[in-house]
Design a protein that fits this description.
254 residues; alpha/beta; six-stranded mixed sheet; four-stranded antiparallel sheet; 9 helices; 12 strands; 36% helix; elongated
């Protein structure tokens, strides 16, 4: 079984709508390219207590978590302090990250404000930042990176390729197929027994159903499975036979 991967995306500016999130789709893409799947996403504001409670919970759950945002040195950046609270440790200047910081600001004064950029919870490890050498940090399979996509995404990709290569699955070994179902009984609750039967018979496949509406009227129901090609073919054939028996019209999803 693959590990459970989650994402925490932080920032009042995202929740207020001032900025659009650019992390969710990209992280899903990075995982998908490695045959992995994002299981959950949480959006949180700049609330230190809520962040600390969230990280304490997700660390206890044992998930692999990528957290984007809030690791800067301004008053509205709370991630470092929240992680320290979740871990029950203090903050300290990270020696390895400080070396990177001095290279980044070579020939310039390293102010106390700049040192805050690499003041992390005690005992964490550094995540290298190929964009500007201002590091992120990791603890308990949680990876804390900046909110800037051009920094965050290469750092997350580095973490995946460094620590989770054994989890990668062949992308070519998985297919997804679906029917578009129409008719008076082409809705989810009328097909629950069929869905449950397919899930029980093919536990390694992922079944999905996506209804489509136009106004208040049902347009169609997309019903399909994803996984190993031979099993997908068998499951789809069982679905086809049953929906035809029930008089439901279908076409292949494009």
């Amino acid at each position: 079984m693959s590990r459970t991967f989650g994402t925490v995306i932080i920032g009042d500016e995202i929740l207020s709508g001032k900025r659009q999130d650019k992390h969710f789709a990209k992280i899903a893409e990075l995982l998908g390219a490695r045959g992995l799947r994002l299981s959950w996403v949480e959006y949180l504001g700049d609330d230190r207590e809520r962040l600390a409670a969230t990280f304490k919970r997700t660390m206890a759950a044992g998930d692999v978590v990528f957290s984007c945002g809030g690791i800067g040195n301004t008053p509205d950046d709370h991630t470092r302090q929240a992680v320290a609270a979740a871990l029950g440790v203090g903050l300290e200047l990270h020696p390895e990250a400080f070396k990177e910081l001095k290279i980044r600001f070579a020939g310039e004064e390293i102010t106390e404000q700049r040192k805050l950029l690499v003041t992390f919870p005690a005992g964490v490890r550094m995540i290298p930042n190929p964009f500007n050498r201002i590091a992120g940090f990791m603890a308990n399979e949680h990876y804390f990176v900046p909110g800037f996509p051009q920094m965050a995404h290469p750092m997350i990709e580095w973490a995946l390729d460094t620590f989770y290569r054994d989890e990668f699955r062949p992308v070519a070994g998985s297919v997804e197929k679906a029917f578009l179902l129409t008719g008076p009984t082409a809705y989810e609750s009328a097909l629950l027994d069929l869905m449950e039967r397919i899930v029980a018979a093919y536990p390694t496949l992922r079944l999905f159903s996506l209804p489509s509406l136009v106004g208040k009227e049902r347009r169609h129901l997309e019903l399909g499975v994803e996984g190993e090609p031979e099993l997908v073919e068998r499951a789809m054939e069982e679905i086809r036979i049953e929906i035809e028996r029930r008089g439901i019209s279908w076409t292949w999803r494009p």
